[in-house]
Each structure stands twice: as C-alpha cells, then as structure tokens.
Amino acid sequence: xxxxxxxxxxxxxxxxxxxxxxxxxxxxxxxxxxxxxxxxxxxxxxxxxxxxxxxxxxxxxxxxxxxxxxxxxxxxxxxxxxxxxxxxxxx
Length: 91
Ligand SMILES: [Zn+2]
Known about the structure:
Four Helix Bundle (Hemerythrin (Met), subunit A); binds zinc ion
C-alpha cells in the first residue's frame, strides 16, 4: 500500500479519531478536578492507542495490523479506532 492509498483510507476515520481524542481530554480534565483519581486502567490501552493515532497516521502505520501488517478493515476502525489487529488476530 502506498502513502496516498493509505492516507485516502484513514482520511474518513479522522473525525472519529478526533472525537475520541476530545473525549479523552474531557475525561482527563474531569479527573484533574477530582481529589480522588478515577481508576482508568481498563481504558488505558485504548487511550494510549488513540493518543498515538495522529503520529501513526503521519508515519503511515495507522490502521495496519500490528501482528501481520495487513490493513485493518475500515469498518472495524470506525467502530473502534483503537483496533490494532486485523480480524485474523482479533480473537
Ligand atoms: Zn493481522
């Protein structure tokens, strides 16, 4: 897959990603205002992936399976932009 093809593929996912990033920022802001931090362990993996997504898009790695390097179905990324493996490795 060349860079153009890759950017055309991830372009429709950007609004979804930006929405996720905004949600994370909102959560962080709320957390900061509470005296007792909320336990975010369960979400932390997804958070990190979302927060790294813009960098991965720049590097042309976003949406590629970390196991086999194949593109992850865009439908799946729309459901959850934090997907990092293709259907073969998702189970
Ligand atoms: Zn894969």
